[in-house]
Give the backbone structure.
Amino acid sequence: MKIRDKFLKAMRRESEGYIPKSIGLCSAQLERFEKEYGHRDYACEWKLPVKGVHLPFRPTTDDFTKWLGVLNERTTVDEWGIGHERATNGSHFEHYLHPLENICSGEEVRNYPFPLPASTEDVDRCKETIKHIRQAGFVSQVSVAPVGGTVFWPSYKLRGMENLLCDLSTNPDLVRCLLDKVTNLCIQQAHLASSTRPDILHLADDLGTQISSYVSPKTFRTWFKPRLAEIIHEAKETHPEVLVSFHSDGAIQDFIPDLIEIGVDILNPVQPECMDPVEIKRRYGDRLSFWGCLGTQTTLPFGTSEEVGNKTKFYCEEMGKGGGFWIAPTHLVEPEVPWENVLAFIKTADEYAQLF
């Protein structure tokens, strides 16, 4: 059986025994990998079964001076007009500049130069890449998370977190215009992405802090759930077999039934510092698969290599019952993680991936 077939059966909870793995390296760890292996293709070296395919939005302008002012040389601006000032220590962290930080009305949102969905050429290129991935027996994944998220993230990165959260109570016209604009773009992108026939469509919105969600269940169900539901509905109408994965860090247990209801198939990363993965599996494992669970705030940076191996084994055995588990660190591997811990994860995970 090809890896793709084994993966899809596992994620649909139709079989157990095969547990796929994934890992992402920050730039500092990528340099360490290159030093050790002489190249940068860790996905190939470590036999990761899922291949990501990028489908970009199209910029409508490259001049956001009106909204961001004059920028320093370390700041880059994406097609949404969001400024990114990356950390200098090799981690993935950034300081954001919010182009809509100082607006006051929905009309100003409507006049902003949002990007456009992917071009026909990019869709065709994506479709061809997915065809080759499938022929090789691997799993294809396309993301509709243009700036790391799908509805909440793009909105707060455009507006600023504090502003957006306040807008939900004090400026409903502005926030409605902003969320609707972002959602409509992502609905169109989800249609285009699903038309390329990927195995997984990935969505994301960090909805949780370390101790609770950013917003109440009522606020989530009023403002965010219906919009995410529209995006997922469009994706599955276009490609009924597609699996939808959804990323949210933090304590989001209050929202898990809602995510299942709107069509999420795979939840990532199930952060163990914030939720109990085994309890989440017990409660929802008949309706939801899980991707992640190995803590990047605790075990991976601060445990021994033996502890990393033992924790990886524990989650594979507990979360893998009945299928529906994809083992991974819960975020990028940051610079402070010892290299021997990275290798301990790979070695132990390979035992459950059967080293295909």
